[in-house]
Amino acid sequence: MQLVKRALGVVTALSQESAGLTLQQLADRLEIPEASMYRLLAVLKEEHFVTRAEGSRRYFAGPAAWEVGNSTRRSGHLAERSSVVLAELADTVGEPVLFTELVGRNAVCTGRFGPEREAPLSARVGRTLPFHAATAARTLLVGMEEHRIRRLLCGSDFARYRPRTPRGVHDVLHHLFLARRNGYGVSYDEYDQGIWAVSAPVRGGTGHVLATVTAAGSEHRMNQAARRRARQLVLEAAHTLGSELGHRGTGGHRPCAS
After folding, report:
1. In what order do the strands lie in the sheet with 106-113?
2. What is the Cα–Cα distance from 114 to 62, expressed in whole angstroms?
3. Is 71 exposed, middle or buried (0-12, 13-18, 19+ CB in 10 A)?
4. Distance (Å, whole) CA 152 – CA 158
5. How many CB atoms lie within 10 A of CB 162?
6. How far apart are CA 131 and CA 38, in angstroms?
7. Phi and psi based region of residue 110 (left: phi greater than 0; alpha: psi -120 to 50; beta: remaining)
């Protein structure tokens, strides 16, 4: 029984610390000897309730722990933490900004900031976005293996929202190839008419993609200079949010001219 209580204590502590905790911090907080904590973490890591970022001494709540948790409540909390950064981004870029998370098997818009425009976006808070057509949703998949992406898209009707909407799994995989290469995803006239959008992934302490940050605007305002600026600002915002969540990756990715 004591072992179960200790394990639950570790998972609870890590779930409350998005930046992770070291073995020493966990041992001190839970008053467990370091040797016992080391063995306990090894078991929890093997069962995916705990994970550790490569090259880091910090432990994080693993995917199994998050599956047990309430994903809707977690999404709201993450969006709330991000609101200041995203509101500033919307003010700076002068276009609507979206925050999108993977909730179960769906890509859900959990935050929207900035102005309403004459060419409104379909995305609203709480709305599920299509993986194949919306870059805010599609870019959530950049860290997934191909077989998981295919399984997630299985059964999709690949609705044709616009003539440029990707038409199948192959098109989606090509978009993801470009997004991985460039560090961001782009769409134009694929989901909303005449809308250009750029999305960057927000990664947590283990490197997994937790959300995307997206800036979107009408083609009439988003000229080449505006697109370059939006790409850089979105990348910087995603890096800032990732750093707050314990991600140790480097920032300042230099966008390609596409």
Report:
1. 128-129, 106-113, 97-103, 209-218, 195-203, 185-188
2. 33
3. middle
4. 12
5. 15
6. 40
7. alpha
The length of the chain in residues reads 258
Spatial distance between the Cα atoms of 193 and 190, rounded to a whole number of angstroms = 7
Distance CA 73, CA 81 (A): 13
Q: Give the position of tokens 């990732």.
A: 242
The number of helices, as runs of H, and strands, as runs of E, in the chain is 9, 9
Q: At CA 82, angle to CA 123 and CA 120, rounded to 5?
A: 20
Q: CA torsion angle for 68, 70, 71, 74 (degrees, to 10)?
A: -120
- pLDDT tens for the 258 residues of the chain, in order: 678 888 888 888 887 776 688 899 999 999 999 999 999 998 888 887 888 766 678 888 776 666 565 444 444 556 566 888 999 999 999 999 999 998 878 898 988 998 876 557 888 888 899 999 999 999 999 999 999 899 889 878 899 999 999 999 999 999 999 999 999 999 999 999 999 999 999 998 778 898 999 999 998 899 999 999 999 999 999 999 988 777 776 544 444 433
CB atoms within 10 A of CB 141: 26
For residue 203, the cross-strand partners are 209
Confidence (pTM):
0.69
Residue type, 105: R
Phi and psi, residue 102, nearest 5°: -85, 115
